[in-house]
Structures are given as structure tokens and as C-alpha cells.
Amino acid sequence: MSSSSDQPPFRSAVKAKVVDPLTDFVDDEVLGGLLLLGAAIVALLWANSPWSDAYFDLWHTELNVGIGGASIDLDLQHWVNDLLMAVFFFVVGLEIKRELVTGELQDRRAALLPAIAAAGGVAAPALIFTLIAAGGEGASGWAIPAATDIAFAVGVLALLGSRVSSGVRLFLLTIAIVDDVIAIAIIALFYSASLSFAWLLVALAAMAAVVALQRARVSSPLAYLPVAAVLWVAVFESGVHATIAGVALGLLVPARPFHGRDVQGALEHRFHPVSAYVIVPLFALANAGVDFGGGLLGDALASEVTWAVAAGLVLGKLAGISGATLLALRLRIGKLPDGMAPGQVFGVGALGGIGFTVSLFIADLAFEQPALTDAAKVGIFAGSIVSGLLGATLLLRRRRGA
Fold it and tell me: Among 153, 376, 393, 395, which residue is least crowded by beta carbons within 10 Å?
């Protein structure tokens, strides 16, 4: 057997560009998933403890940033959701750009099957939610079950270890990345307020300034911070959700070496751990707390929103991802990764129902009434837990039956 030093240059280059970044990404997501789970548990325990008032008072504390009229006034929860989550979506934008230029989405034929699977995994949950909640006051939450949480889904696969092939991991990751693209588009198109075209022009000018700095061969990230701040404020004030600023910046970062520097790799290496280990757990701590006292759990179980979200995640993701994938395979559109059997598609589809982070994010955008938001959260918790257990079971049963 030859050593890694004996590998052909092309093979080494492919490993450096695709395998190593993917491995780093998965490692960060696994630990991030554990921290995310821990933060969610802490939020739930805190919100249902004798100190629950302190939990809700903390996240509803108002914080004004700026001077006079040129200031933004939000509570702590929304500073996390609007500002810190922009960093999360910046990392998502970096990952999408890398996959499109040098990763798995670079080969359009290889990317076609997971793209079809992701589209099915968005459409079916939205349809099931709409069939259950159509016409009700919760109808605007149709996109809540359409999202997949990469950290939790990859964490479940990590627990299964070598019993799941790398092809299954790659297929799930690619689906989740395409799912993120669709989720970003949904947030921008359907969950933004009335638009201010003046502020949109400022945002476009900021993006043009980023491009101008790149053409001036400026590679230091610090030089881009003031422009990034202007872009975030402009997007926030424009009515488009502020996190879209993070996505835009991530997509503008060069995916190939920039004047001899791997700027994208350096930024991803720096920000992905911050996003996975700090921002996403903090988001869970700020958003996962639901006080089940006072009859809330009973109200949630009687709410069509709860059942629509849970059914969308469990049934919609399973049916949408697996159905779209198997139909595409029957039509000879694309192929599964090496080491992945058709029967494992059902396990991957079920794991896609672990919504959590982005589902909680969309729930906060979709509803103004706290009762509907809490009902959606109960549905997210229940649907994600069932989906995780179902996905692991299906993948293990498929392996034993192989």
C-alpha cells in the first residue's frame, strides 16, 4: 500500500480542496451539535425553573446601539438573532461558495441528485404544513419545517460511527447545503418587512465597495469590517432580514486563492468554530426556552401549528427527500455517492427532519403572537427528536440488512 506522500499530485490536490475542508467542517459541526443540544437543554430547564423570570427578563432586555436618531434599539434576543446570526449565515455563505466553486456542487451532474432531494425536502414539508394549518392564524409558518439542521444531523451520523459510510455523510451534507440555499431565499423573499429602496441602494453600494477593495488587491479582513458594518445596517434598515447581509458577504469572498492567499479558507477556519461553538449555542439558549407551565403544553398539543410543524418535519422530510431521490434515480437523473445504497435514502430523509436552528429562526420571523411561536417550538422539538431517532434506526436497520 502506498503512503500519502506517494499519491499523484492531482489526487493530493483533490484531497486538499475537498476532503480536508469537508472533514474540518464535519468535525466542527459534530462538536457544535453537542454544544447546541446542551444549550437547548439549559434553556428549557432554565425557562421551567424557579428562575424562569430571570431567563425571559434577560433576553427581553433592551439594548440601544448608536447615537441619537442613528441608533438601533433591540432586545438581547433579537441582537443575537439579527446580528450574531448574520455571522452564522456568513459562514453558510462561505460554505456554499466553496462547494459551488471547488467542492461537491462544482460538478453539476453530481450535485443534481442532492439538489433534487433538497427541493423535495423543502416542498413536501411546506405542503403538509399548509394542508394542516391552511386558513388558520398560523398559516404564515409554512416554511418552519422546511429547514434541516446540519449540526444535529451530522451529530447523529457521528454517533453511528463507521456503521454509516462516508457516502451517506456526503449525501446528507450536500442536501443540507442546498437546503440552506433554499432557506436563505425563503427568508429573503417571504419573511422580510416592507422594503426601503433607499437602504437597498446603500446595501448595493456596500457590496460594490467590497468588490472594489478586492480589485484594489486588499486582502486584509480588517479592511472589510467597516464596509461589512455598513452593509449589515443597510440590510437591517431596508426591511430585508439582516442575516442576508452575512450571506451576501460570504458569497463575495473569493473561493480561489486571492493574490496568493487562501482568504476564504482562512475566514472559514476562523469563523466556523466561532459560529458552531459560540453563536449557534447562544442562539439556542436565547430561543429554545419555552415555559411549559400554565397550560402551555396542553395548548400547544391542541394547536394545529404544533402538529403541522411536527408532521412536516417527520413525514414531509422523509417523503420529500426519499421520494424525490428515488424518482430521480428511476429516471436516471444523477447517481448516489459511492458506498451509499438506495435503501439508505430513507434514513437520510428522516435525518433531514431535524430542523431546530433554522426552524426556530423562521418561527421567530413567521409569528408575532408568542403563543404561536411557542406552539411552533414544541412542534420543532418533537419533530426533530422523532426524526433523529427514526433516521438512526432506519440507517442501522439498512446496514444490518445489507
Answer: 393
Q: Which of 322, 300, 299 is nearest to 382 (CA)?
A: 300
Rg (CA), the chain: 21
Q: Is there a contact between 51 and 298 (Cβ–Cβ < 8 Å)?
A: no
Indicate if the pLDDT at residue 122 is higher than 90.
yes
pTM: 0.80
CA 255/CA 250 separation, integer angstroms:
10
Beta-carbon contacts of residue 359 (< 8 Å; ≥ 6 apart): 144, 145, 147, 149, 309, 313, 376, 380, 384
Highest-confidence segment of 54-63, 213-222, 389-398: 54-63
Percent of the chain topping pLDDT 90: 39
Kindly report which listed range (29-38, 57-66, 318-327) carries the lowest average pLDDT score.
29-38
Residue ranges of domains in the chain: 20-192+241-400
Our CA angle for 106, 108, 111, nearest 5°, is 85
What are 73's strand-pairing partners? 64
Which backbone phi and psi does 61 adopt, to 5 degrees? Answer: -65, 125
Q: How confident is the model at residue 93 (pLDDT cuts 50, 70, 90)?
A: confident
How far is Cα 149 from Cα 80, in angstroms, rounded to an integer? 18
> Residue 72's beta-bridge partner residues?
65
Using alpha carbons, select from 319, 306, 300 the residue that is nearest to residue 127.
Answer: 319
Correct CATH for 20-192+241-400 of 2.40.50.140, 1.20.1530.10, 1.10.3720.10, 2.40.110.20: 1.20.1530.10
